[in-house]
Amino acid sequence: NRQFLFRPHHVGMPKSVVAREMALKFNPDAKIVAHHGNIKDSQFGMDYFKQFSVVMNALDNVDARRHVNRLCVATEKVLVEAGTTGFLGQVYVIKRGETACYECFPKPTKKVYPICTIRSTPDKPVHCIVWAKQCFQLLFGHREASMLFEPPDGPDPSVFMPTVNAHPAVGDHKAILKYARDVLVALFNTEIRKQLAMDKYKTARFVPQPVDEALIDANCTEGAAPSLAGGASWKTQVWGAEDCIMEICQCVLEVYATAEAAGLLGSYEFDKDTSQAMRFVAAASNLRSHVFGITLQSFHDAKGVAGNIIPAIATTNAIVAGRQVTELFKILSERGTVAEVCRYTDCVRYKTRRGLLLQAAKLECPVATCFVCNQAIVDVAINTATTTLQEFVDQVLKRRLGFNEPTVMIGDGEVYAEGQDAEDFSSNLPRHLKDLPSGGMRHGTMVSVDDFSQDMEVQVCIHHEETFDPEKGAENFRVVNRRAGTASAPPPPPAQSDAVPPGNGDDDEVEEIEPMPSSSGQGQKRPRSEEKGADAAAPMPPGGGLTKAPRYSAPDSS
């Protein structure tokens, strides 16, 4: 877990190296080998995985998880998978032929923002908004939990923590404004100059520009913040650097204005619906965006982003990692099959009716339509007349279906391969799918896709479709179905070009889960997610009264 890295001198070092260093402090006799590299590199291929008894995942993105899942399925190695999102987490075990694998159920796409990017090299508004939320916690909340916190005994003295810790007297407006001014100078001027002096940005696309100290002095005043202008227009206006400085000063004044408010220092938590907190985050994120040359956002836009950011929580990661270890003990004890002795565990935020925060359920069986477990057929709707082979490989095979080094065959003819044979097929890449050799890809064409690095082969059934609804996604293709059974050609193209074959849903659409009909029509119990004390985001265990339970959508932010 990345909490191993929560020391300033570890920033920039490989996670695996630091994890080994910290773990050996707990147990110097442990044998730990750290590798720093991409898990999809050839050195970590089939032979590498075959040497292990069990694989345990602590990954933070879907692409890497899918790759490890496929290698473990191919080598028949047990995989202990886990993930967390805020206070929620899941742990489950994967064994080929016994349990569902990571790809048996569709996964929502989640974005993860590395701490090093947020702290040092932001290039998107969301990076600055995350930073601003951490800044709010540093100033008003539990500061040690903020990613911006720097301990006093660190090897590199902090240039802003002494200023942050120098709290002003409650009710002394002059002292409070000076405190706000000093914090602004420390965070947006002195700290940036320090990073520049260390050559942190010599290869950066944009070299940050510190906020001029004179600009801070001129605008650190009381009663001039944009939010005090009246009306609601300020919420949709984009605040410049001067406005942001005034708004931050106003927020600091409000916190320290009364003894009651100041008494809450150290316990404030960000809430997007609290005006003071959201105004501070909107202003601080825009001021940081100003420093790094990033597009500024209105209060309204910043609020929409800030409300969707789920922070990593160290205790959730620790609990989930501990549950992975207990599952490992069960596997190594060999007291039964994986399906018999291991469990799917939900870590929830609120206690269940039984007073539990960890809910265990039996592991799911492999899904018949999973093309990883059972080499099922994948139906892809795509415009074969306008899509090139390059786009098909990059967007469909690699990004959506997770292949690493695919080889593509139409009938007995090979039209694409990677590695040493890549040059032989480079001329096919710019060609449209329908114009490829061996008859091309048209409506009803069965395409074989093989990936030696993952020991996986899949049949892709092509459905030609002219146009796609932009409201259902920006992609010009759709994985419309995954099915088991013998390959067969699809029905003729629908009369309307934007229609989908009956029964085939869009992978990107939200599926509505409906309760099973009650035999009596009365006395039907509510789903557990509606019960008081249960977490609505927690997956339903088998038999929970739902027609389908996509429980393996493990979050990917740990």
Summarize the structure.
With 558 residues, the chain is α+β, with helices and mostly antiparallel strands.
Descriptive keywords:
Structural Genomics Hypothetical 15.5 Kd Protein In mrcA-pckA Intergenic Region, Chain A; Arc Repressor Mutant, subunit A; globular; 3 domains; Rossmann fold; 15 helices; 558 residues; five-stranded mixed beta sheet; 31% helix
Structure characterization notes:
With 558 residues, the protein is α+β, with helices and mostly antiparallel strands. The protein contains 15 helices and eleven strands. The strands form two sheets. It has a six-stranded mixed β-sheet with strand order 8-7-9-10-6-11, with helices on one face. Helix 5 crosses helix 11 and helix 9 packs antiparallel against helix 11. It is globular. Mean pLDDT is 81; it is low at 485-558.
Topology:
Elements: H1 15-26, H2 46-50, E1 54-56, H3 62-75, E2 78-85, E3 88-94, H4 115-120, H5 125-140, H6 161-165, H7 173-197, H8 213-219, H9 241-256, H10 259-262, H11 275-292, H12 299-306, H13 314-333, H14 338-341, E4 344-347, E5 358-361, E6 377-382, H15 389-400, E7 406-410, E8 413-416, E9 446-451, E10 456-464, E11 477-483
Parallel strand pairs: 1-2, 6-10
Antiparallel strand pairs: 2-3, 3-4, 4-5, 6-11, 7-8, 7-9, 9-10
- Class of the largest domain, according to the CATH hierarchy? Mainly Alpha
Structural class: alpha+beta
Strand order of the largest sheet: 8-7-9-10-6-11
- Could you report the average pLDDT, rounded to the nearest whole number? 81
Task: Using the alpha-carbon principal axes, give the shape.
Answer: globular
Q: What gyration radius follows from the Cα positions, in whole Å?
A: 27 Å
Name the beta content range: 5-15%
Largest sheet: 6 strands, mixed
Low-confidence stretches: 485-558
Reported by name, the CATH topology of the largest domain is: Arc Repressor Mutant, subunit A
Tally the helices.
15
Q: In CATH terms, what is the architecture of the largest domain?
A: Orthogonal Bundle
Q: What's the oligomerization state?
A: single chain
Order of helices and strands: HHEHEEHHHHHHHHHHHEEEHEEEEE
- The share of residues in helices is 25-40%
